[in-house]
Amino acid sequence: MDTGSGSTKVEEKEELKAVVLADTFDELFQPMTQNRPRSLLPLCNVPMIEYTLEMLALSGVVEAFIMCKAHADKLTAYIKQSQWARGHAQMKVFVRSVRHATTIGDALRAVDESSAIMTDFVLCTGIVVSNMNLSKIVAAHVANKKRDSNHIMTMLLQETTPGHRRQVKSDESVYFIDPSSSRLLALNSHATVPRVRTTVIPPEVITAHAEVEVRADLTDTCVAICTPDVLALFTENFDYHIMRRDFIHGILESDILGKTIYAHVLGGSNSIAGDSDGDAMAGEGLAFVSHSGYAACVTDTSAYDAISRDLIGRWAYPLCPDNNPGSYEAYSYSRGAVYKASSVRLDRESRVEHHVILGANARVASQATIADSVLGARCSIGEHSSIRGSHLFGDVRVGRNASVESSVLGERVTILDNVIIERGCLIGDDVTVGPNVRVPAFTRIARRRMRKMGSPESMHDDSDDDEEESVWADAERTESDPMDGLDQFDRQAVGAEGVGYVWDNAVADAGSDADSDYSDDDTDQRLRHLHTLGSTMADAAYPESDGDGSADEDDDDADELAHLSPQEEFERELYLTIKRACDDNLSASKASLELKSLRMSYNKEQDEMRVGVVQEVLRIIDIDALADSASRTLRRWGPVIAEYIADGRDQLDLVDIVERHCAEEHGLDGVRAKLFVRLVYLMYQLDIVEDVAVVAWHNRALKKADVDQELVRALEPFVDGLNESDDSDDESDDGSDDGTEEGSDESE
Q1: Which of 87, 217, 324, 485 is the most exposed place for a label (fewest CB within 10 A)?
Q2: What is the mean predicted confidence (pLDDT) over 195-199?
Q3: 672-685 and 626-642 helices cross at what angle (nearest 10)?
Q4: For residue 529, what pLDDT is reported?
Q5: Is the dihedral of CA 623, 624, 628, 632 positive or negative?
Q6: Residue 529 and residue 538: Cα distance in Å, rounded?
Q7: CB under 8 Å to 299, separation ≥6 — which residues?
Q8: What is the pLDDT of residues 488-532, one digit of tens each?
Q9: Does residue 54 contact residue 137 with C-beta atoms inside 8 Å?
Q10: Chain-centre distance of CA 700, in angstroms?
Q11: Measured over all CA atoms, what is the biggest interatomic distance in the chain, rounded to whole angstroms?
Q12: Nearest of 670, 677, 723, 714 to residue 696 by alpha carbon
């Protein structure tokens, strides 16, 4: 009997297992995780754990072990009543409580101690969203392990464009990869603020490899294929607490261990699952897979919002709200990426704009506006209220004349009349706010007061039940409770009829960067808002540092950025994107890809992008060489502009944009009419606008008082020419018909 052949057969029969880390050991979602683990929080009205388990089942995993500390009983109860507990389920799911774990390293040491994992396995968090089938990546990992006996892990990284909404705002990472084998050679991570202008490259990375790929555009998906050696290394090294900072850095920098890690890069930030069945490829005798797909981890509320927008915008298709994992509420999809349950009630004059999910039995009253938001089941929005860029869990009540901007509201939250919730707020379950109050940006409000008991570790949402009771005070006690008077509600923050307490951000954030290399108080202060939805880099605008004492040289720029509104920030990024495309001489297709990524990052509509792109392109034209510059600019950018033109209405709007530019832009005195006619003519020549659109715009503009009539009159000769051309074409057609008939008669 051939032992080698037998060994191969045994390997082929090995069942793929997975370890799912349900805890992240940070405070980034508090107080939303006060009553349940983060993995059970709804994302697009589906518990996040469902997306992770669906990915694992699709990848052929037969057993998944969920390691959980906080609220393990609730996660266990959820799994028992879910589809994964049914007899015909394609994957078995087990919840293991790790009551005394304080870090990811402790959880993995518990897995090793249990001996549940003896073969290669998938390691991920319980908050991963992906449309990937990992089976071919697993096969490539196994093939690499046969050729490289030191290979212990394959990391899954997602490629993202600069400024993409899914890029981690609080951390910048540079990956050094051998392109011939996809081996990860080094990883350099640092906090976003204060900004560092240089990165350290280990000399041996350059000297020992013929070619090195330096990537600063990759995001960790928190998914990896591992050998059992990974668990053993955590057991042997008790100073390994965090996956990236401790374990990966330790492996890459250790000459003694001699272990290797490989990276699989998902190409493109907006790929779909249809591209994810790539072929295995070979390089340097090693196997790797080349394909695209979608994978992301809900690391903080900023990522939560970004991934939600991706699902609503169908960037992770077929993973989308109308094709949810599990047996959750069915939605109908309509124009503008609006998803509605069948039981939704919309009053006659309510306004649902775009990128919205309306859960079962949700109600939107008259004159209320919903945009870029998710409403859970049984949510009710009062008259004249506005919900924008926000996520409302189940049974939320919003009163009249209220405004909620880029915030998360937990279950059974009540917002009374005339309340304004500014961006970045987290309102925990069962909180009441109002009436007539304004909640400042980035405020967190909880139903129960947090006790400051010394160490940040004692306040983690991942503490066990006994510890949790000692940390939180029950807000249901009466206000006259003799317990030193500390349990009165924070009336100034929540209002006269409000119920809740302001969460102490300074204390909470002390443990918020568990997976970073930075823990000093000053850095935590600077990074605080970058973890929160609705934040921008301007919210943490601090001077740059290059290590030579020049930290103050960019104070003015930082102050300027700090005062930019979201729209002003978008306009600035749009300008920089088009300027970069011109400076780097990018092709139209590459420039278009950059603009698509920018549109995703700021969640802009087609009309908004058309206005912004056209205005910035027109500003490129050199007035001193008008004819040549206009022709050169439009011929280069015409294909990009054409992507924002879908029908005749868009063509009319395009001419409107050009007219406003020529009429209002400074520095065009004396050439406004000439420039306008030239641009319209070029757009007609390049088939961006049709002749009927030009004529229709001219006829309409003659009757409008807000259009520069000088420009309208300057266009008349061109319009007359188009009309004469149409008339001559009609006469030619008539004459051709007559001639044919006469010729036929003569031949007869």
Answers
A1: 87
A2: 70
A3: 50
A4: 59
A5: negative
A6: 10
A7: 24, 28, 127, 168, 222, 515
A8: 788 888 999 999 999 875 444 444 444 443 333 444 545 565 667
A9: no
A10: 41
A11: 115
A12: 723
Distance separating alpha carbons of residues 422 and 386, to the nearest angstrom: 12
C-beta of residue 407 within 8 angstroms of C-beta of residue 427: yes
d(CA 371, CA 350): 12
Per the listing, tokens 């690391």 go with: 299
Looking at residue 721, its pLDDT comes to 87
600-650 residue pLDDT tens = 777 788 888 999 999 889 888 888 788 888 888 999 899 999 989 988 888
Mean pLDDT of 549-561: 45
**Does the bond joining 31 to the residue before it have cis omega, within 30 degrees of 0?**
yes
Residues in Cβ contact with 235 at an 8 Å cutoff, skipping those fewer than 6 apart? 109, 112, 113
What would you report as the CA-atom Rg of the chain, rounded to the nearest whole angstrom? 30
Distance CA 269, CA 157 (A): 11
Is residue 14 exposed (0-12), middle (13-18) or buried (19+ Cβ within 10 Å)?
exposed
Amino acid, res. 32: M
Tokens (6 digits) for 668: 């065009």
Show the tokens assigned to 509.
């954030």
Q: Which of 429, 376, 387, 539 is nearest to 29 (CA)?
A: 429
pLDDT-derived band at 748, boundaries 50, 70, 90 = very low
Q: What is the sign of the dihedral through the CA atoms of 245, 247, 251 and 257?
A: positive
**Which of 354, 521, 506 lies closest to 444, judged by CA?**
506
Residues linked to residue 156 through DSSP beta bridges, in sequence order: 223, 264
Crossing angle of helices 691-701 and 672-685, in 10° steps, is: 150
Coil, helix or strand for 217?
coil
Distance CA 421, CA 602 (A): 20
Structure token digits, residue 112: 């090793």
In this prediction, residue 564 carries a pLDDT of 63
How much is the pTM?
0.68
Across the chain, mean pLDDT equals 80
Cα separation of 554 and 551, whole Å? 7
Cβ-contact 638, 686 below 8 angstroms: yes
Residues 684, 646, 273, 65: is their CA dihedral positive or negative?
positive
Residue with tokens 């029969």: 13
